[in-house]
Amino acid sequence: MLRVVVLISGGGSNLRALLERSAHDDYPAHVVAVGADRQADGLEHAEHFGIPSFTVPYGSYPSREAWGAELLTTIQEWQPDLVVLSGLMRLLPAGVVEALAPAIINTHPAYLPEFPGAHGVRDALAAGVDQTGASVIVVDAGVDSGPILRQERVPVLPGDTEHSLHERIKPVERRLLIDVVRDIATGAIDLAAARPS
User: Fold this and answer.
1) What are phi and psi of 2, to 5 degrees?
2) Hey, what domains does the chain have and what are their CATH numbers?
3) What is the pLDDT of residues 18-70, one digit of tens each?
4) Residue 7 annotated as binding?
5) Torsion from C-alpha of 151, 156, 157, 163, nearest 10 degrees
6) Contact status, residue 27 vs residue 63, Cβ threshold 8 Å
7) Which residue among the candidates 24, 30, 108, 119 is catalytic per the annotation?
8) What is the per-residue pLDDT across 145-157, written as a single tens digit (0 to 9) for each?
9) I need a surface site. Which of 65, 159, 174, 194 has the fewest CB within 10 A?
């Protein structure tokens, strides 16, 4: 059984989908803990499913590196096989990524390498494209630049707003995440082969 720690900053809709799926006996991964960089609404999902949670508040530390060191220590206490960034809206320090790589993945609401960064949906609309997408990647030291594990296109419809487009991308993100975690657990995806260079 693959041991997973999930890190969030917000509502945790991807987290909830993963918790719901991993509650089934036929799913080969289990979320052992949920962490956040703030008091995030998504921590309620962990409580609902009886999953331990922790918070390492970014503002409580003198530097990003100090925060990252504490976060890494806390993550490693759970001995995860995989760390999932699920809406964590903060770049991890390089030392944290190096310590966890390649067993650290992230979802992104765009068809990478198109529209990386915190505003992928807004940027797609601003560019006037007729399609964007969702991606699951291995986290590296860059911004949404790691090896792509799976992705899928999502059309941009006439009249789409940032909210309406994001709401159509989210279910695709959730499905891709659930599939990728399953495939990592079964060995169908070899993270060592996808290790960032």
Assistant:
1) -70, 125
2) 1-100 (3.40.50.170), 108-197 (3.40.50.170)
3) 999 999 999 999 999 999 999 999 999 999 999 999 999 999 999 999 999 99
4) no
5) 90
6) no
7) 108
8) 999 999 999 999 9
9) 159
